[in-house]
UniProtKB/TrEMBL annotation:
It holds the Pfam family PadR. InterPro entries: Tscrpt_reg_PadR_N, WH-like_DNA-bd_sf, WH_DNA-bd_sf. It comes from the Bacteria. This is DNA-binding PadR family transcriptional regulator. GO terms for molecular function: DNA binding. Keywords: DNA-binding. Residues 27-97 form the Transcription regulator PadR N-terminal domain. The keyword DNA-binding applies.
Length: 182
């Protein structure tokens, strides 16, 4: 008898790289902590992954029905204002663990700042300066937040992730300085 996970494992793991997309994996990981609504998952993703992995509301609400259709999550209790909880299934836990242990492949950078810089030729000099100032303020705040997170980190993994956040913010600030100097 072929289970859903067996079927998914065969399609997900050609050449050892998981085809479970990162957003679906992020949601399954969050649901390991217990049932949650889409809105709760959006908020939790922002809190836990905000500095290194963005999850939009539309992505969450697109992924949840697909995960339910495949048996990786099931509907839980209905909440206030017709909100719907989702619960990870045993198949979802196995699929998530399989994703965790597969080759990660390369990261895919998705930076609104860099996208704006690519198109900044469409702006006036003053608008470009405002873009740089605003981005600098944002990344200085991210750097401060990452430093605080590293100090408060409960384990070496959380500390390493916070230090990655610091390095990312420093790299963005260096990019902004380089652009401003040219």
């Amino acid at each position: 008898m072929v289970t859903t996970v067996d079927r998914w494992t065969k399609t997900w793991h050609g050449k050892g790289v998981s085809d479970l997309n990162a957003t679906a994996a992020a949601l399954l990981g969050l649901l390991h902590d217990g049932p949650a609504t889409g809105g709760q998952l959006v908020a939790e993703a922002e809190e836990r992954f905000g500095t290194f992995f963005s999850v939009t509301r539309s992505q969450v609400y697109r992924e949840l029905p697909a995960l339910a259709k495949e048996g990786l999550v099931r509907l839980g209790k209905q909440g206030p204002r017709s909100s719907q909880q989702y619960v990870i299934t045993a198949a979802g836990k196995r699929a998530f663990k399989s994703w965790l242990t597969s080759e990660s492949g390369p990261d895919h950078l998705r930076s609104p700042l860099i996208l704006r810089l690519v198109h900044s030729g469409s702006l006036t000099a003053k608008q470009r300066a405002n873009l740089l100032d605003s981005a600098r303020e944002t990344y200085n705040q991210e750097l401060d937040d990452a430093k605080a997170a590293a100090k408060a980190a409960p384990d070496p993994y959380a500390k390493a992730i916070a230090e990655f956040g610091q390095a990312h913010a420093k790299a963005a600030l260096k990019l902004l300085d380089t652009v401003a100097a040219n």
